[in-house]
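Exercise 7b. Backbone tokens:
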């Protein structure tokens, strides 16, 4: 697995575009120690915790935010308020945080029914056209240019601004890595309803 999106994730925090970032690690790939080393290379402090079948690595310049965020991720007694606070730390668009909060209840109900519920899959079904820019491809196999669940692939202006800005950031940081990231995202996604979306 390549580390492009992890580099970009840390870069956005190192360059003060947001105060906090998080990487979810499954099966210790990439390894926690490698990612901590990478974060330190960017001048960031880290904290981590274990949740379900994964390890989450948090990184920030601010130790207090790291502690607060870890506590909110692990012991949230008020999920709505916790998500708003965390959304602020991560600098997620408010419309997308609200969308996530509105879908929390839905998620819990679907879980009880033992259904696989994937908000990202549901959101992409709202796309009317058949083409999206490569920097909006957040689907498996691609490289993420932004790190939140968007409220709308076509309609969220803030998501588009963040994704395009991050793409430019990566391009300036390392042109070859940016080209590989972009290349990996130029795919066609088959939707559940049979339509296809091309990322261009
Ligand atoms: Zn939004």
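Sequence design result:
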């Amino acid at each position: 697995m390549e580390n492009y999106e992890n580099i970009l994730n840390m870069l956005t925090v190192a360059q003060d575009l947001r105060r906090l970032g998080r990487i979810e690690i499954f099966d210790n790939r990439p390894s926690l120690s490698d990612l901590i080393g990478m974060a330190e290379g960017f001048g960031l402090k880290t904290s981590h915790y274990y949740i379900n079948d994964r390890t989450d690595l948090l990184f920030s310049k601010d130790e207090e935010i790291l502690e607060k965020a870890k506590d909110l991720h692990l012991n949230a007694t008020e999920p709505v308020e916790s998500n708003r606070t965390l959304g602020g730390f991560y600098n997620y668009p408010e419309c997308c945080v609200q969308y996530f909060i509105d879908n929390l209840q839905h998620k819990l109900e679907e879980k009880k029914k033992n259904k696989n519920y994937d908000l990202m899959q549901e959101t992409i079904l709202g796309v009317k056209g058949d083409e999206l820019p490569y920097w909006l491809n957040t689907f498996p196999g691609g490289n993420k240019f932004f790190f939140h669940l968007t409220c709308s692939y076509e309609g969220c202006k803030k998501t588009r601004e963040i994704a395009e800005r991050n793409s430019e950031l990566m391009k300036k940081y390392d042109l070859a890595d940016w080209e590989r990231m972009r290349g990996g995202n130029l795919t066609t996604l088959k939707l559940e309803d049979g339509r296809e979306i091309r990322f261009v």
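Instructor comment: The helical segments are 4-14, 32-41, 63-75, 79-90, 94-112, 119-124, 157-173, 175-185. The pocket of zinc ion is lined by residues 93, 95-96, 150-151, 156, 158-159 (CB under 6 Å).
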